[in-house]
Amino acid sequence: MRVMQIEGDWGLDNIRLAERPDPAPEPGQVVVKMKAASINFRDTVMVNRGYGRRSGELPLVPLSDGAGMVEAVGDGVSRVAVGDLVCPVFGQNWLHGTFREEYWSGTLGGPNDGTLQEKMLMPESGLVKAPAHLSAVEAAALPCAAVTAWNALVEQGQIKAGDSVLVQGTGGVSLFALQFAKMHGAEVVATSSSDNKLAKAREMGADHLINYKGTPDWARTARAVLGRAVDHIVEVGGAGTLEQSLRAVRPGGIISLIGVLSGGDGNLNLGPVVTQNIRLQGVTVGSRTMFENMNRAISMYGMKPMVDEAHQFTFEDVAEALRAFPQGRHFGKVCGLAWDA
Does this model's pTM top 0.85? Predict the structure, then answer.
């Protein structure tokens, strides 16, 4: 079977097409013929061994997200059947409960082989059925970005109707957060440096739009347009945006720290976190149970992920797609098609 793998040394220039033996399922195992994959910011870091020893060893198949059709099952498999459209769980050993240190060892796309392979051999416990109304490309957008947004707002954030949510930017996590917030009856403020992207966010249901380039003090503006402080903030910027998030959130509110796109180091006044009883919560994807909870909601509401068709790639072109990803030209998820999709 064909795979795209990082070999010889780390880096985008070392992602190459290779051949590996076709897998055969043993009891409890499943062979999935991959149809699509999608890119997360994590993948751009992982390809350069940016997570140190947690990056794994070479050769390594990159990317954590994907979807495919069940091609064969071993004895005793009952969770999925041949022909099902399924998604791999990001943390293969994180099935239930809260995050634990040992779950790092089960993550796909580093340290374990990821989704850029023709066929994946997986335990049945590491798969979930995709919502029936989604295509393989749309389903490939779910495992990391969607589950992260769901975990932040629903599982940990306990969002409810009438809450206010601020989402930063128009990447995968932020747009999924917008969709889940509206699903739960929340009022949404969206920020971006692009008026064009903000217009698209409005089409998806955003109630208030802020161009943070023209409005650097967007915390004040967010409070003004809402008429109150924000209940939940989906924080993807990191050091460059966290101070504004602390100014925007209400006393007792939640800031879900998901990304550090503007840097991970910086000076932070922790006083407001304490005196305003703010919950600053790190979010690292989620469990299989969270994934299944989310899929039930997606199915019930007929929700469709926002996939950027203008920036789709083929598996063999993944290096260029990863190179372009940090430039932020995309809107939503950047997905790729497998060889025989």
Answer: yes
